From TrEMBL:
GO molecular function: monooxygenase activity
Name of the protein this chain belongs to: Heme-degrading monooxygenase HmoA
Domain of life assignment: Bacteria
Keywords: Monooxygenase, Oxidoreductase
ABM domain ranges (all copies): 2-90
InterPro entries from the UniProt entry: ABM_dom, Dimeric_a/b-barrel, Heme-degrading_MO
Amino acid sequence: MYIVHSVFDVPEEKADEVIDIYKNRTGSVDKWPGFIDFKLLQNERKVGELTVEICWDTKDSYLNWVTSDEYQKIHELEKKYPDKELAGIVPKVHKYKVVAK
């Protein structure tokens, strides 16, 4: 299994707005071959710190997703979000290979 975390900080007063965006996401990644699970995590102590966690069956499945036209289309829409402060946020991406369960 391969897990990708995209960690980003938003202003605390905008955290609920961003959470709502993810609750209403397109879900196109869910149909991608090798996709296992999607979660949006919120730090309990720092409510503006959010983490997107996506689990894949293999690293290759993840790489096929991030090099796809569908991925590019979704991320281009993010750049056009009307709130320029939110649109300009760049996440820190961490990638993990599951080595034990």
